[in-house]
Amino acid sequence: MRLSDFIVESTGELVSAFEQRAGSPAAAQKTPGTDMLRESAAATLHAVALDMQAQPAGQDADAPHAHTEAASAAPELLKVAGGHALARFNAGFTIHQLVDEYRALRASVARHWLPHGEAGDHERLAELVRFNESIDKALMEAVSRYTEAVAHARDTLIGVLGHDLRNPLGSITMSAQYLLRTEGMQPAQTKAAFRVLSSAERMRRMVEDLLDYTRTRLGKGLPVRRAPVHLEPVLRQAVEELEALHPGRSLALRCSGELEGSFDGARLAQMLSNLISNAIQHGDGASPVDILVDGADDTLAITVRNQGPPIPAALHAQIFRPLLRNAAPRASNSVASSGLGLGLFIAREIARAHGGQIRLDSSDEAGTSFSVQLPRR
Length: 377
Ligand SMILES: Nc1ncnc2c1ncn2[C@@H]1O[C@H](COP(=O)(O)OP(=O)(O)OP(=O)(O)O)[C@@H](O)[C@H]1O
Ligand SMILES: [Mg+2]
Fold this sequence. Notes:
This protein has helices at residues 3-9, 11-21, 25-30, 34-54, 75-90, 95-113, 121-181, 187-217, 231-245, 265-282, 343-353; strands at 227-230, 251-257, 260-263, 289-295, 299-306, 357-363, 367-375. The protein is α+β, with helices and mostly antiparallel strands. The strands form two sheets. A five-stranded mixed β-sheet has the order 2-4-5-7-6, with helices on one face. The chain has a two-stranded antiparallel sheet with strand order 1-3. The site of adenosine-5'-triphosphate has 24 residues, from helix 10 and helix 11. Magnesium ion is lined by residues 274, 277-278, 339, 343.
């Protein structure tokens, strides 16, 4: 008898054995109902049997990588494994408990099959190998669906939290602005109100970055709305806002060429603001930050340059990765980043959404510059 037929015929018995094996204390604590366990174990066994039958005859352990890829599995197997993983996730199973179920299923089948039947050793072994491969395909699919579900839940939570933080932040900002306009305040009070304002502004930027990040993670991409715009006043305002927040720092903006075009002005201001914030925060605090904006015939170039220890070439490829921060050597007068490590990721997403790109050049002599090239349409 073939193992796949054995599985179909003995499903009941195998599932009972599986239930006993799956009853580890960790699994038992959260078992959401034996019926569900029974049903999904039976469905998985059937799908595995189908997948084994679908494997071409003669393809067995001797054929390297014969069918280890989930993509080559029978669709029913992937559907059952994926659905099972999502059901487990929703029922509060941990990924360890999920994997443990596969271990138990595998063990119960192997135990019952080995003493069974009259087939020769080689044949029985080959059948077992086929079975293991089908189980592994199911397990890979289950783990990847489960981790996707975890990531999606996390991103949704961050998105909702970030979204709901906007309103209270807005009222903190408005109240601080109101205080700053109030006459007769002591210098110390004005300073405190200014600190409230600049911290709220920093939080607002972090929340916006976080929302943009979750948007890209949830597969929605960064929304970019192009419209005819003159970039000079838009970018100048972004620079002035940062000047107000960092009174001791010198930001030198130089604009040249044709700066009118079809762009998302707010997004480009956000991108510039991320790059300048980095130059202020991670660069050498003593020298000015140079900001060059140049509109040529077919491209618009925006460059932000600061002095300070160069970013090593080995880091250039990864520095744009989300959630990476404090990777580069710091200037002696700069403090460690308390940011989320999203500024460069979002700057690059904005450049890309405009069909452009961002480049990093960094050396002892020339300092560190991030240059964005955007095609003019
Ligand atoms: N202009 C720069 N000079 C030197 N190092 C930089 C510069 N810009 C970025 N870096 C390095 O790259 C890392 C990632 O930058 P990124 O803007 O993505 O995150 P962050 O500034 O740490 O946090 P966030 O921008 O989310 O507040 C920084 O932590 C810093 O180590
Ligand atoms: Mg940053």
